[in-house]
Amino acid sequence: MERTDVNTLGEFGLIEHLTRDFPLRQPSTIKGVGDDAAVIDNGGLCTVVSTDMLVEGIHFDLAYVPLKHLGYKSVVVNLSDIYAMNAFPRQITVSIAISNRFSVEALDELYAGIRAACDTYGVDLVGGDTSSSPKGLTISVTAIGQCEKEKLVYRSGAKAGDLICITGDLGGAYLGLQLLEREKRIWQENPGVQPDLEGQKYAIGRQLKPEARKDMIETFRQNGLKPTAMIDVSDGLAS
Amino acid sequence: MERTDVNTLGEFGLIEHLTRDFPLRQPSTIKGVGDDAAVIDNGGLCTVVSTDMLVEGIHFDLAYVPLKHLGYKSVVVNLSDIYAMNAFPRQITVSIAISNRFSVEALDELYAGIRAACDTYGVDLVGGDTSSSPKGLTISVTAIGQCEKEKLVYRSGAKAGDLICITGDLGGAYLGLQLLEREKRIWQENPGVQPDLEGQKYAIGRQLKPEARKDMIETFRQNGLKPTAMIDVSDGLAS
Description:
The structure is a homodimer.
Chain A: H1 10-19, E1 29-31, E2 38-40, E3 46-55, H2 67-83, E4 88-98, H3 104-121, E5 124-132, E6 137-147, H4 172-189, H5 201-208, H6 214-222
């Protein structure tokens, strides 16, 4: 049997490959795969849905990511996708798979971070799943938002001549990651050394405790502005 | 620092422990944690949301579970939760984390099963996430349904004197699992032996290709029936 390595397609190529044959049949499906979030028509307000999975050893390294920060970030990255549709997140579900090295106290830390994100952004935790895992921690968050149909902003709305604006500092979180990885290497070579992150608070903060741009969407609403298109570039500008 | 083993709480005790301090603040949140699915008010139809995570080595064993069946089942177990609210599933999101032992062809098999479930139940795949994993396969599915608010059926509606009815054959899937595990043990001890599953098609089918009871909910609607309470017992009668 043929064996094609997944890496030959890349993440977005793989998603495109796996989902290209799925038809959209439900009249309520306004937008399926291919934007920051899916959009569902309910007669009243539209439901906007986005989901992300964070895997230990791939998306985070518990050597330098505190569990509370991880919980916060795992929620915020999903809320960011809802805001990128010009919608407001209202609810989240959180599923976790954990190996037996995680204690209840460790999970309490994780959920304290999830709770902090719920408090900051005013969203409700409404469901989820907890499961064992043979190894490591996996977190899957689904964010659910609401929006009037006419206020939704899609990636596809962009057209030639549009002004392109970016919020935040591109590369900030990446720089923070480089600093944390550097300090981890130094610490591994010499466990007596304390990490030197003096003066790097901003970049480290962008990596460990990013925020979603709720403020921008609120500003748009207050000023009656509607961008022609929006995209969440927190996965990287080239994504 | 204190270290409480997660197993002391049990799955449902753990969910209760982790989510007990989360307030519900959104006026649109009708039902949060504690039923088969969460319920969100949109002005028009309500959105019903449920999510489940399946982890290799915990929920399935690829020694005897074909990937196509796994894809089918991972969708169906979520749809079952939506039907258990007396609602109809309309959309799903599917997130997967995969180690490098999975080829594109293997994922195509998995998604063929997901597609078959979408076809059978008429739901749309509208989003998801794909990620690397250091080890094994994890699948997280979120199902999204719709329902008129007055037709929703909660667990909490049950009262003394109600007639209790069960659909399907309790223990069928468990028996199928026992048979598959037995044949796996025999095969491990003697790789030359072919599995003997003759005459066990029904029990094996309940384990490898379960169905959600869409037919029951349709029957309720056609006959103007509304149960006082419903619960999905496919996790086990005691769950």
